[in-house]
Specification:
The structure holds two protein chains of two kinds. Chain A is an alpha+beta fold. Chain A has two domains: 14-145, no CATH class; 146-240, no CATH class. Chain A is built from nine helices and eight strands. In chain A, strands 1, 2, 3, 4, 5, 6, 7 and 8 form an eight-stranded mixed β-sheet that branches. In chain A, helix 7 crosses helix 8, helix 7 crosses helix 9 and helix 8 (210-217) crosses helix 9 (221-238). Chain B is of the alpha+beta class. Chain B folds into two domains: 10-39; 44-212, Cyclophilin (Beta Barrel), CATH 2.40.100.10. Chain B has helices spanning 9-33, 75-87, 186-190, and strands spanning 55-60, 63-69, 97-99, 103-106, 112-113, 116-117, 146-149, 162-165, 177-184, 209-212. The chains are: A alpha+beta, B alpha+beta. The interface between A and B is medium-sized, with 17 and 18 residues.
């Protein structure tokens, strides 16, 4: 029995098959879900579990067909808000859909890869935040392509002088994604982790709850400056 | 006195069966061993081409592959490809990335030649001519036999490496720079040694030569 299990494990390890999709996005075990979309996005889904990254630190499970079909309308509705021109500018083409996405054993809603023009999304991520997480991750792709435009030092200076971000996004226990009632310059607890996450939180709320966030920003000068910072720079990309 | 033994009818049938089996096994062994047995070798001299200046003949183990180049679609890519063909740079280049019934890739001039194949570096070699800009087209459909330049993750990094699709791959539309299409000899490409588990093929097949028809 043990030998059989070892054999199965070896077969599993060796099941990394190069195919035409792997050749393009360097993620194994994917299949085409939907190609012909108006904005040029190409949706791929995991037909088997996969592991990628340094020491295979990123893993995700195959997507359940019914779950995928159910979530896809919400995903495509949100991503259809980005036109082909904008997506080309920010370098996003492939959306990989899978379940239970982990980076170094930390569950995450999405992983952007600017170089490979790919965004991996976890279909099972908390439904309460799922829609916003998509835009949050897209901001990271935008940020990766326009580092100078979205300057983290300038952004950090928008905060109260006594505030300090953590060393990295997972170095702190500031992980809450719920919108604060009292903002004090930050929309969520996660906003306080690092500057780029703070930017991504502001951007994602502007994409999903714009009027409410603008109203909140009118009563919070730090938040107001942050909202304006994001808006003006996104406009620059749009009018590039 | 010796008694003459006569074979019975069933013994005769068995004898004929064994002889037939022997002949079949013998011929099957040689047919199977020769992977090119069922591949028709194309003679380009027997074909009339409407645009012979854009026809390339690639000779591989199982015969000739005729490629029609598409300079109207991607002028710079075709110019680069033709230059390397004329120079003989692709001769003895390894089909180092081959996915069965999907695509074959060759053209690493630095680390993928028969005289110098480097398994650690194959796929990262340069031609020395620099990279060229991607020439993408939404109208090139990446059907079976499509020839395109390979690139790194980023666009505008095309150099000498090229691949040929062995099936329709719509995912590649707008992703790779087309160079041409195989018009004869696809079966010869389907016999090229595959390696689906890894990024490269160990002891790969090679291009014998590529030349322009004219």
């Amino acid at each position: 029995m043990k030998i059989l299990l070892i054999l199965l494990l070896i077969l599993q390890i060796n099941s990394l098959k190069a195919d035409e999709i792997f050749n393009l996005v360097k993620i194994p075990n994917l299949e085409v879900y939907k190609l012909n979309n108006l904005n040029g996005l190409k949706y791929l889904n995991a037909k088997k579990d996969f592991k990628i990254g340094i020491k295979n630190n990123i893993r995700c499970n195959k997507s359940n067909k019914q779950n995928l079909d159910n979530k896809f309308s919400l995903i495509s509705k949100n991503l259809a808000r980005y036109d082909a021109d904008f997506l080309n500018r920010i370098n996003l083409r492939f959306i990989v859909l899978c379940e239970n996405l982990y980076v170094s054993e930390i569950n995450t809603g999405g992983i952007p890869d600017h170089a490979k023009r790919t965004l991996i999304l976890d279909l099972n991520f908390n439904e309460k935040y799922f829609e916003r997480v998509m835009h949050h991750e897209i901001f990271h792709i935008i940020h990766n392509g326009f580092k100078v435009l979205f300057d983290e030092e300038i952004w950090s200076d928008l905060n109260d002088k006594t505030f300090k971000y953590a060393e990295c996004s997972t170095c702190s226990n500031r992980l809450g994604l719920d919108l604060y009632l009292e903002t004090n310059g930050f929309l969520t607890e996660y906003s306080k982790s690092i500057a780029s996450e703070d930017m991504a939180e502001v951007y994602s709320f502007l994409m999903t709850d714009k009027i409410n966030i603008e109203n909140m920003a009118n009563k919070d000068s730090i938040l107001f400056n942050k909202v304006e910072y994001i808006k003006t720079r996104i406009d620059k990309i749009l009018n590039f | 006195m010796k008694k003459k033994l006569k074979a019975s009818f069933s013994e005769k049938i068995l004898f004929i069966f064994l002889i037939s089996l022997g002949i079949f096994s013998f011929s099957f062994f040689f047919i199977v061993k020769n992977k090119c047995f069922f591949v028709e070798n194309i003679d380009p001299n027997k074909i009339q081409f409407s645009n012979p200046q854009n026809i390339v003949v690639m000779n591989v183990e199982c015969g000739n592959v005729i490629i029609e180049l598409l300079p109207d679609l991607s002028p710079n890519a075709v110019k680069r490809f033709k230059y390397l063909v004329k120079k003989g740079s692709y001769n003895h280049s390894a089909f180092y990335r081959v996915v069965k019934d999907t695509f074959i890739q060759a053209g690493d001039l630095e680390y993928g030649n028969i005289d110098n194949i480097n398994y650690y570096k194959v796929g990262s070699g340069k031609s020395g001519l620099g990279t060229i800009k991607s020439e993408l087209s939404k109208n090139f459909l990446f059907e079976e036999g499509s020839v395109a330049l390979a690139r790194e993750d980023e666009f505008n990094t095309e150099d000498s490496e090229f691949f040929i699709t062995l099936k329709k791959i719509p995912l590649y539309i707008g992703e790779y720079t087309p160079v041409g299409k195989v018009i004869y000899g696809l079966d010869a490409l389907k016999k090229i040694k595959t390696g689906t588990k890894v990024e490269y093929v160990l002891r790969p097949d090679f291009i014998n030569y590529i030349k322009l028809l004219n």
